[in-house]
Amino acid sequence: MAEYRYLAKPDPEWVDFPNRLPPGTKVHGMSRDRDPIAPQAGLDIDELDVAARDAHPIRLRSYRKTPPPPRDTEPATATEPATARLPLFLYMHGGGYVTGGLETDDATCRAIAAKLRVHVLSVEYRLAPEHKFPTGFQDCYDVVRWVASEEGQDRLGVDLLKGFVLGGTSAGANFTSGISHYARDQGLTPKITGVVFLAGSYCHPDARPAKYLDRILSIDEVNDAPGLTRKSIDYFAAKYGAPPTDKRLSSLLFDSHAGIANKAYFSVCGWDPRRDESLLLEQLLRQEGLGTRLDVYPGLPHGFWTTCPDLPESKRWLEKLLQGLAWILDEA
């Protein structure tokens, strides 16, 4: 998409990263750490395990508002009790399929659960190279199928008819796209109602369909951004080991993108080799009749909000994400 090349003009603060960032800016690296849960007033945060298809226990971290203490009677004006079941936002972290974990976006998951009327569930899927493709994808899909089951909904206390939203960052957004397509084709019920794509990738560079070659240019052109370049993309792809043309990795290869959800929200980084895939997928979903919202961040690199969450632009990103999720959940 040549018309979007201007988005790759670097933000001056991010040139020569991290040397031009404001003094005192904290830079967060990726790790596989799982720390003890830090309590937060107003939130119930706990963890549970769900069995994968090979019986591996997949750890999930659950976030929801703490319900008020029970009262003998509800106010006559109340439309539903405070303990009513919530919609669900199932989140998958980024990290190139090889790193990241429950701590990577813990602060974001907390903010979503605190601000919106939604139960947030974060997935600790298995990572490459110890667990190559399709293990991470299958772990996430197994969680999706579990939460859609009567057992899963009852254990979590959610009502997916109120909202069943799937989302993630980078590799997690890639899982989101592949899973939502497969769930549609396999007739998963309840259906996924919303998808959230944060700095996502949707096609291996070597599997780009011929009809999109002039629309996916950033993967070849953006090679000077901090955090992600074509070299690092190829490195992660080799560790992950997915065949380029497997649709679970390259969901742009699906013949149709209709019906994967009702609404889709995108965060797109302008100075990101994966930029054009997100812009293309948003257009394709809109053409298929999905409601879409798109926030683009010119000059900013892949997943900047995870790297430097305290910067003003990262805080603006979080506010925009909350607005996008509220729109998907019909709270806007």
Automatic annotation (TrEMBL):
Region Disordered: list its residue ranges. 25-46, 58-79
Domain named Alpha/beta hydrolase fold-3: which ranges? 90-305
Keyword Hydrolase belongs to the record: yes
> Record's superkingdom?
Eukaryota
Keywords tagged on the record: Hydrolase
Q: Which organism is it from?
A: Cordyceps javanica
Gene3D superfamilies noted in UniProt:
alpha/beta hydrolase
Family matches, as InterPro entries: AB_hydrolase_3, AB_hydrolase_fold, GDXG_lipolytic_enzyme
What is this protein's record name? Potassium transporter protein
Q: Has keyword Hydrolase? A: yes
